[in-house]
């Protein structure tokens, strides 16, 4: 089963794929931990918290131990954790005549169907426009949002979904509703209600760069990542 899911994967590819899933603040800590000159400069609490957020159960004693530890975490998060539910699903399907004939290829196809890509995420958006006089402004902000999603990284795309829906997959029959308000200044930060998959944006953005900056601030925040881990 593991070979079906992952194939023969090199350590470098595993590490690269794992790093794509991590937020910027963890990548910064990892880079410093792997450098012997900066390892001791990292506060122990910061180091332990970063490792725990990635799934580690214990601290590392030196910079030389960081890469092997990260490789083990990559295997855990990319190979074994995704494999386990598929194994359980496969066993469950075999016990029910309603699912007779459904094999691993179908399960993998379902998993791939929900894998987030810019076009899938954009297709899942459903703007909830207010009154006609604001339509042009809100349509412009939707264009900025789509531009951000096309240009963003795989990790940020996943975190955008988590911010809006609490899930890191695209739900085929669930739309992400995009609502608008007139907030500005410090109150302009995007907000989301995950139980209803609703994203709320200000209609007063005048550039994609402004919207992208505010979105990155909320989806990459430590609070959002902590909620994701819990």
From TrEMBL:
Segments forming domain HECT: 137-223
Record carries keyword Translocase: no
Pfam family, one: HECT
Keywords: Ubl conjugation pathway
Name of the protein: HECT domain-containing protein
């Amino acid at each position: 089963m593991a070979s079906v899911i992952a194939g023969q994967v090199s350590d470098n590819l595993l590490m690269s794929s794992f790093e794509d899933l991590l937020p910027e603040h963890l990548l910064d800590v990892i880079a410093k931990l792997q450098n012997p000159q900066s390892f001791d400069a990292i506060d122990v609490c910061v180091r332990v918290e970063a490792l725990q957020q990635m799934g580690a159960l214990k601290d590392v004693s030196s910079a030389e131990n960081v890469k092997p530890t990260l490789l083990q975490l990559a295997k855990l998060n990319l190979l074994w954790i995704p494999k386990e539910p598929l194994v359980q699903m496969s066993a469950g399907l075999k016990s029910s005549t309603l699912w007779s004939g459904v094999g691993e290829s179908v399960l993998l196809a379902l998993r791939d169907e929900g894998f987030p890509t810019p076009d899938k995420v954009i297709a899942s958006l459903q703007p909830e426009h207010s009154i006609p006089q604001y339509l042009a402004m809100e349509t412009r902000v939707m264009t900025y949002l789509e531009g951000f999603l096309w240009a963003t990284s795989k990790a940020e795309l996943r975190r955008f979904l988590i911010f809006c829906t609490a899930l890191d997959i695209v739900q085929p029959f669930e739309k992400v509703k995009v609502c608008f308000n007139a907030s500005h200044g410090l109150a302009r930060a995007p907000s989301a209600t995950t139980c209803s998959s609703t994203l709320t944006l200000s209609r007063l953005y005048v550039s994609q760069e402004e919207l992208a900056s505010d979105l990155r601030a909320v989806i990459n925040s430590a609070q959002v990542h902590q909620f994701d881990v819990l």
